[in-house]
What does this fold into?
Amino acid sequence: MTRSLVTGGAGFIGSHLVNALVARGDQVSVLDNLSSGSLDFLASSHGAFEFHQLDLLDDEFDALLDGIDIVWHLSANPEVRTGITEPEVMFRQNVDATRLVLEAMVRCNVRDIVFTSTSTVYGEASVVPTPEDYGPMEPISSYGQSKLEAEQLIERFCSEDGGRAISFRFANCVGPRSNHGVTFDFFHKLRAEPKALEILGDGKQFKSYFHVADCIAGMLAVSLAEACPNGGFTALNVGSEDGIDVVTVADAVCEALGLSGVEYDFTGGVDGGRGWEGDVKRMLLAVERLRDCGWVPQFGSRAAILDTARWLDENY
Ligand SMILES: NC(=O)c1ccc[n+]([C@@H]2O[C@H](COP(=O)([O-])OP(=O)(O)OC[C@H]3O[C@@H](n4cnc5c(N)ncnc54)[C@H](O)[C@@H]3O)[C@@H](O)[C@H]2O)c1
It folds into this structure.
């Protein structure tokens, strides 16, 4: 039986991962400070995992690593816009917390880590769809930079401390329990004002959105032994195989909520129509590497948004 520790396991993606690990028979411990996660997200696995309400930055957690085979390190601040207003918070939560996890792993002799990274590490890639070996990696946001620095710490853990790691670089993940991002924002804005919708930027930002069911299937499609047969660090992209623009996202959210004739009000954005400083205007990931491991995504971008907006409509 695999003994898994999931940091951030009460969050949006983490809770789906925990449910899947429990279902496949892992012995699962969850570490989460519940800053954005919720125990309600884990209700369907109630009693089948250990839960520890701890903060990676403030609390001692070595004891949780005793006997653990693999750490799934999802805890982070995933809100790109926090990086604009409070970059130091972003770096503490994403880089310092990752360093503390790796140091504890070294002390407790745990070698295997799966990390959740992001498409934003590539910055404004000149190759789209962007493959894992694209370079130079030049993030344009604090979020992307913080995740790249965390990846570099993990690479060093692999080369100097004998670790093995997969870093999954996600496009925009959506689905049930989605708690941030454009679909979530549009849903709440439309709930408050169903006749008009403010859209950040020029609405032409083109990105890949993928469903959390495909995300979890991707994360479980390949083991560390398969991905890193000689040890070391491997990056794998996860995303849908298509992209859509923000207006299409807005149309899909309106459709899911049964709204028509909504007036779109574009802010115009910054620097050529970006929604905010550091917003990548065009993002689509090459996902052949994961496909070669047998992973087949079930949702395109629009279908993933529709499913998310319907879930939000039923649950809020
Ligand atoms: N959702 C996406 O589209 C997306 C895209 C790319 C990468 N990711 C990455 O996937 C991971 C999960 O993202 P998510 O969307 O589920 O976000 P989320 O906010 O729902 O999950 C993060 C979890 O970590 C916990 N947490 C945060 N700081 C902590 C700390 N210091 N100590 C303990 N727990 C802490 C939060 O309470 C939360 O449960 C993150 O690493 C994120 O950067 C997400």
Observations:
- The first strand starts at residue 3 and ends at 7.
- The chain has two domains: 3-173+211-238, 179-208+241-281+299-315.
- Residues 8, 10-14, 31-37, 55-57, 74-76, 78, 93, 97, 116, 118, 170, 172-173, 179, 181 surround nicotinamide-adenine-dinucleotide (CB under 6 Å).
- The mean pLDDT is 97.
